[in-house]
Amino acid sequence: MRLTSMRWEDGRLSMLDQRGLPTREEWIPLADHHQVAESIRDMVVRGAPAIGVAAAYGLALAAANGADMDEAAKELAASRPTAVNLFWAIDRIMALPSLNAEAVLAEAKKVEDEDYEMNLAIGRHGQELIHPGWNVLTICNTGALATAGHGTALGVIRSAHDAGKEIHVWSCETRPRQQGLRLTAYELTKEGIPFHSIADSAAASLMRDGRVDCVIAGADRIAANGDTANKIGTYSLAVLARHHGIPFFIAAPTSTLDTKLPNGDAIPIEERGAEEITHIEGIQIAPEACHVFNPGFDVTPGTLIDAIITEEGVHSGPYSFLSERDISSL
Ligand code: MRU
């Protein structure tokens, strides 16, 4: 059965609480867009495309509940700053000619269905880059739970595995929220894809020892020149990969492109709470007065990315993702 992070059934939205995985599989019912915004903020649901789908369903709930749609859109847009899919999905719904409940729900379902289709296409294109027997290193979770299904970077890994390529995955733990250890390991186990979880700091020595053949990561926002915001630690992997002559790939749907930004300098980077660093499972492990800086994302320059895989195909640098405005003026 297809692994999903949310369900719309009989006019109700529920979400798999990703904070409890892999040990606790709990579905939470959500009654209104306020609860959806809170779920995005608290990372009940996470991963750029999944956040976009959640926001779309948040607006479907707002329309069904007769809420003020502009206010609902504003509240949902304020939930997290970095993943552009959130704003892309909200803008797409708010641009509908009519914001009646039926039309908004139909569009939200389309956002979800199209994301799933885009991930399958990303997997098809991306797996061509993966050679049989490769050791593929990845970070964060970019699988079915982070999207509408299949996944982006993990979707490429899934497709390569499904094509019988006998790959092995090095899955970075991904401090501090451990999306790699909790979620990628959970998805890889369910799929039966051979893998080892590693501490983030083990990547360099694995590369030096010749035990990594490529790195593949997802994206939260890609600027027109290919600069890519993704989970903190992605940039270090790209630098390491270039140093060791290992190909570094990004996989993301075109809904993650922010062509208004010429480069990654203006991508807003979310700063998250100190407890993600100072506490583990609610237990304080740092001194009381410990000062913390906790950026959730970093920006990898497009020049370090050997290929960006979208549903359209495999793009290689130098990147120039044109905006609709640029295209219409050609
Ligand atoms: O903070 P998160 O867990 O929402 O961050 C997720 C990531 O950085 C993913 O790698 C990215 O969104 C790509 S998801 C397919």
Question: What this model shows, in words?
Answer:
It is a single chain. This protein has 330 residues and is an alpha/beta fold. The protein has helices at residues 33-41, 48-64, 69-77, 84-94, 101-126, 153-162, 179-191, 203-208, 234-243, 275-278, 324-328; strands at residues 6-9, 12-16, 27-30, 135-138, 168-172, 195-198, 214-217, 221-223, 228-231, 248-251, 257-258, 279-280, 283-284, 297-300, 307-310, 313-315. It has 2 domains: 6-119, translation initiation factor eif-2b, domain 1 (Four Helix Bundle (Hemerythrin (Met), subunit A)), CATH 1.20.120.420; 129-329, 3-Layer(aba) Sandwich (Rossmann fold). The chain has 11 helices and 16 strands. The protein has a 7-stranded mixed β-sheet. The protein has a 4-stranded mixed β-sheet with strand order 11-8-9-14, with helices on one face. It binds 5-S-methyl-1-O-phosphono-5-thio-D-ribulose (MRU).
- Cofactors and ligands: 5-S-methyl-1-O-phosphono-5-thio-D-ribulose
- Which CATH class of the largest domain? Alpha Beta
The CATH topology of the largest domain is given as: Rossmann fold
- Biggest β-sheet: strands ordered side by side in the sheet: 6-5-4-7-10-15-16
**Helical proportion?**
25-40%
Strand content: 15-25%
Whole-number tally of structural domains: 2
Family: Belongs to the EIF-2B alpha/beta/delta subunits family. MtnA subfamily.
Pfam families: IF-2B
Catalytic activity: 5-(methylsulfanyl)-alpha-D-ribose 1-phosphate = 5-(methylsulfanyl)-D-ribulose 1-phosphate
Site (Transition state stabilizer): 140
